[in-house]
Amino acid sequence: SAPLLSVDDLHVTFRRSGGPGRRSNTVRAVRGVSFELQAGQTLGIAGESGSGKSTIARSLMGINKPASGSMLLDGVDVAHRRGSSLAAYRRTMQMIFQDPYDSLDPRMTVGDTLLEAVRLRKDRVADPRGEVRALLEKVGLSRSFADRRPRELSGGQRQRVSIARALSVDPRLILCDEAVSALDVSVRAQVLNLLKDLQEELGLAYLFISHDLSTLRFMADQVAIMYLGEIVEMGSRDEVFERPQHPYTRALLSAVPEPVVIDRTVRLPRVRLTGEPPSPTNPPSGCSFHPRCPLAQDVCRTTAPAARVTASGQIAACHFAEPEEVVAAS
Ligand code: SF4
Ligand code: MG
């Protein structure tokens, strides 16, 4: 079936001032990113900070304007929506951020925050207060929470309130940008389980952005690994975690602390990641990962690798990605 969200060859650049008296630089934050997300599914996007994950989120929210490429939601480009089409888009896609402190008004009670959101709904709600109670119940909070303010809530409770607010307009897609990264491990697991239950119940799709691979392993159906503005590997969760093709993915997985490296039947050579990612104002020649890649050869310094697609549909942009499995190069 047609994907709910289809991003094709997205490029996003912006100017960053180099400080007083310095030239401003063009940051090439996203370079040719393509992916699809089906209704009811989760796509996880991983990568170090500065890899372009949050720029994708900001582009979908209309904050960053793409230089080129398309972002189709239900077949209509997000960047071209105006008026009622834009309003419909804002109901279809909701966001949850790392720190709900930034997005919840500290002076408003939880009940008023949710009431305000319920009133943005397309169809008039007959009993808005009843709807607020139903939303609280959906996210596992008792109705007494309606009278509290954000500072009276724990981090996990605040994140439940932002989930309730996102649900208030019946979205089909929720963009989660490091949504559980600030929570401690046990609370994080509770919120992730809640998101999974809601997905099952409501058929929600999630675009789940996180630097934390164990979170993505738990949440995602498909996983994309970003490096310096590009997707270097993408595939099903099991493919990416159990049979990673790209040296960068292997390096990220090698860095995960022991207890969360899940599949022990596959022995991967450990790839140690050294140094910092280069600046996105001036990406390296050839393969962007070559200055940090322990497997780099001469060809990597001069020639950008084409994305190779394996028989199962896993994509890896590396000259040496399992050639025997490759069925096509794009
Ligand atoms: Fe490493 Fe070369 Fe593959 Fe890039 S193309 S990931 S530098 S081996
Ligand atoms: Mg970020």
TrEMBL record:
The keyword Magnesium does not apply. The lineage of its organism: Bacteria, Bacillati, Actinomycetota, Actinomycetes, Micrococcales. GO terms for molecular function: ATP binding; ATP hydrolysis activity. It comes from Cnuibacter physcomitrellae. This is Uncharacterized protein. SMART domains: AAA. Belongs to the ABC transporter superfamily. Gene3D superfamilies: P-loop containing nucleotide triphosphate hydrolases. Keywords: ATP-binding, Nucleotide-binding, Transport. GO terms for biological process: peptide transport; transmembrane transport.
